Amino acid sequence: MTGIDPTIAGQLARFSRAFNSNDVAEAARCVTDDFVWIYYEGPDRPEGRVIRGVEAACAAVVERASRLSRAIVFTESRQYQCGQSVFVTYRASGEFRDSGPFDVRAVDIYTFRGDKLLSKDTYWKIITR
């Protein structure tokens, strides 16, 4: 996390732990009241799927986990800060019951308002065969 503001880095780590473990109360302490997660797939053009509020975002993580036959493994993570935004590049692999295995490179763009997270914008490189 070289070059990342320590307060922002701590808040991002705290949010990620809470978010991925469905701890809505703790995640809510890390985000603004108008927090949105712009999900990497979905019906909302051109965004994918806009999920509003931390409770709905945590529910989307639970829903995604229920579709998995093999848990997502996140590796090769790197973080870069630019003003109030942190760009996280990583690799995600796992397997969905409905569409099979995946192994993708991805980017999350986290935008902060002060020390609270305003948005998480997720991009996955979709690999076609």
Automatic annotation (TrEMBL):
InterPro entries: NTF2-like_dom_sf (IPR032710), SnoaL-like (IPR037401). Pfam families: SnoaL_2 (PF12680). Residues 13-117 form the SnoaL-like domain. This is SnoaL-like domain-containing protein. It comes from marine metagenome.
